[in-house]
Amino acid sequence: MLRLTKKADYGLMALKYLAEQAFVAEHAGPNATGARSAKDIAEAYHIPPQLLAKILQTLARAGLLVSHAGTNGGYALARSAANISAFEVIRAIDGPLFITSCITIHGTCDLAGHCTIKEPLRKVNDSITDLLAGIKIADLIEPTDHLPAAMAGGLVSIER
Amino acid sequence: MLRLTKKADYGLMALKYLAEQAFVAEHAGPNATGARSAKDIAEAYHIPPQLLAKILQTLARAGLLVSHAGTNGGYALARSAANISAFEVIRAIDGPLFITSCITIHGTCDLAGHCTIKEPLRKVNDSITDLLAGIKIADLIEPTDHLPAAMAGGLVSIER
DNA sequence: CCATGTACGACCATTTCAGTCTTGCTTCCG
DNA sequence: CGGAAGCAAGACTGAAATGGTCGTACATGG
Q1: The dihedral formed by the CA atoms of B23, B24, B30 and B33, expressed in degrees to the nearest 10
Q2: How far apart are CA A12 and CA B117, in angstroms?
Q3: Cβ separation of A154 and B134 shorter than 8 Å?
Q4: Domain containing A79 — which CATH number?
Q5: pLDDT tens string A55-99
Q6: CB within 8 Å: B1 and A6
Q7: According to the model, what pLDDT value does residue B117 have?
Q8: Confidence (pTM)
């Protein structure tokens, strides 16, 4: 439970892949855009190509990727990898995230009076949002290791 | 997406309700245990009674509630409301939470080599776990308002 | 013009969720 | 004792979300 979908997983992987490609392109000629076809990415991660294609289209529609059709076309990051957050990716693919079913778009609980739990949970929701918003695609490259630290531990305490 | 199930919602509501009852029981005679039947709780929140019953059974099996059969039976908190975390409730009902499909019980990614995303996400996972573990049932009572503060904001930053 | 690639909608199988039904056991109380 | 109140637990069902496929159309570079 509380897991994100495989699509979101795939999306993050693809973004990471493109970020790496953009990085190498940066060190190549000016015509190397770092664009890769959906098929390439799918093969690199053994993801069903058609599915990945749809995900990338979604991401492009959300403005996180730029697409270029035709021969030698493909996708590339629309912005720097440091400016794309995991939150944006997840929201683009899985839609707005609400930890509890109570919280709708309007912030109103359908069980008007009786659902007294939603307010505290909304805080949790916001925290997770902030957490994910703080994680950029750029943070996903590099073999991790030295990045945890601040992420675990007593991040929060509710005062009563 | 990234939402918890209705069952977990219901479970939290029920726990909160029992916490409140335990509180009033505390101020009553020694024989007032604060135990309430599943039906009572279900009616208070307009939850399908049978469904709530199953949830409460799960919670009892997990050791968060104590049950007492027979006339005037019902459920009561097994511990103080300040010692039961939202995380325990959610895990008891929805099972262990793993934010990404990659992370299995064994911590191994089924896509051995190619899934390079899982390590950073595991940190996120841990953060959310900690976040939920820090929220106690006792924090859910009281008409909220003055409790947010620390929960929103720059909780985390990944160093690179 | 054709190979390569994106765009997009329809479709399908499987799983998960939410909820119901049924049956059985336990305890209290008259 | 016996019945009512209450928990325990498994089978079952309908609906929705997920994961994935297919087919077709459009764009573009050589």
Answers
A1: -70
A2: 7
A3: yes
A4: 1.10.10.10
A5: 999 999 999 999 999 999 999 999 999 999 999 999 999 988 776
A6: no
A7: 73
A8: 0.83
